[in-house]
Amino acid sequence: MTYPIQLPHVGESVTEAVIGKWLVAVGDHVDKFDPMVEVVTDKVNMEFPAPESGTITSITAVEGDTVPMGSSIAEMDPDDPDAVPEASTSGMAGTPGGPGLIGEMITGANVGPTGGTFADTSLEAPPGSEAANQNSGGTGEGRNRADYYSPVVMRLASQNGIDLSTVNGTGSGGRVTRRDVQAAIEGSGLQVEATPASSAGPGDDSLVEPTPIRKIIAANMVRSWTQIPHAWTSIEVDVTGLVRLRNSQKEYFRSRNGVSLSYVAFSLFALAAALRKNPLANSAWVDGKIRMNGRVNIGVAVASDDGLVVPVVHDADQLSVAGLAGAAAPLIEKARGGGLTLEQVQGGTFTLNNTGPLGSVWGGSIISPPQVAIVNTEAIVKRPVVVESDTGDSIAIRQMMNLSLSFDHRVLDGAEAAMFIQDVKSGLEAFGPGSDIG
Fold it and tell me: Among 9, 29, 230, 409, which one carries the catalytic annotation?
């Protein structure tokens, strides 16, 4: 008999996916856990493996189609009908119970709200499975779960004749990432295979087909921009005391804690306190109602080679500056090198966009729904500033930073937005030499 191959649900907030690329064709025989199709969502980009060994009899979702999670995308004639998962048969067309879950997800790459890719180790084949054995690296002793080779890594290595056992992994737990393989290819003098965007000559215009990831990002940004009435406000912050505090503590802090005392940690601390004091800024617009979030979970936009990803620091208001530095550092490292899980990019109630390292001094970011605000911490710049004192005004060189807030005018009015950003400013300016950072 044949049965439908369905897209599994990978998270309650992921409702649909784009069929990126089929890796098999009708008539192909596949073994269980063989990669079948690349799928892309607004949270994760992954390869979906065959749930069982068998022959592909039909493909019902073509490349570029957007399909709901749990829906059928192909049909298979299994080698062993008795091995068909119960959830699969219960979700067959015309059968009560709706779509079920099939198979195990093999790791791919997460996509944050604004794009970018990173490996997702939470969706790998379980230890002892055929896929896990194939990914063991040939050491004879197997590899740690965090070190499994993703299908993307294995395919890139195979295409370019790279022995993965010779590649040093820079990802979480020593995991070999796509960038590690690309570095090995460059070191061997080989060229990474690439498909030209067009045959246009020098000076000619050309059309480039957006990737499925880029299409999802574009759709999300258009939806945000057209559905959310954005408004903006910006304020100057004197962070001279904060800079002096960080400079005096950063070497000792690193030696004691093993992570950097970043400006992000101070920003998270000030934001978390201000969000707790101004709960509307921490709320969400859901189906025409304002949901007051009970937790303060702040997403941090992180630049990677492939774009921006947004890992989430959960319960940020429960942590000290030191605790926030310790919580954010591994998330940022994983975002850049691969290894974030779905849980680590979900549940955000507010977003911090740290544009300062890029040299930006003012910007207006697009809100990530259903959140109602996003803040940019801009570049810290030395400027002459009028300083008031009991002896009169004077001009001094101070470390100044702009805070730029984009907010949803359906939820926040100008006065409420101003009170929130003023509280963030007060929190940042309260830091100085001798401040307790935990």
Answer: 409
Question: How is the chain split into domains, by residue range?
Answer: 3-187, 230-429
> pTM for the whole thing?
0.65
Amino acid 394: pLDDT = 94
Cβ–Cβ < 8 Å for 78, 103? no
* 413 belongs to the catalytic site: yes
Residue found by looking up tokens 């080698």 in the block: 79
Question: For tokens 């969502």, what's the residue?
Answer: 41
Domain 230-429, CATH: 3.30.559.10
Lowest mean pLDDT among 101-110, 128-137, 267-276, 403-412: 101-110
Q: What are phi and psi of 44, to 5 degrees?
A: -150, 145
Is it true that 3-187 and 230-429 share their CATH fold?
Answer: no
Mention the CATH class of domain 3-187.
mainly beta
List all residues 6 or more positions away from 348 whose beta carbon is below 8 Å from its beta carbon: 297, 298, 299, 310, 312, 368, 371
Structure tokens at 160: 């370019």
Peptide bond into 49 cis (omega under 30): no
- The pLDDT tens digits for 96-142 are 333 333 333 333 333 333 333 333 323 333 333 333 343 333 333 33
Any residues with CB less than 8 A from the CB of 259 and at least 6 apart, and which? Answer: 253, 325, 326, 329, 330
Is residue 305 annotated as a catalytic residue, yes or no? no
Among 163, 305, 315, 413, the one annotated catalytic? 413
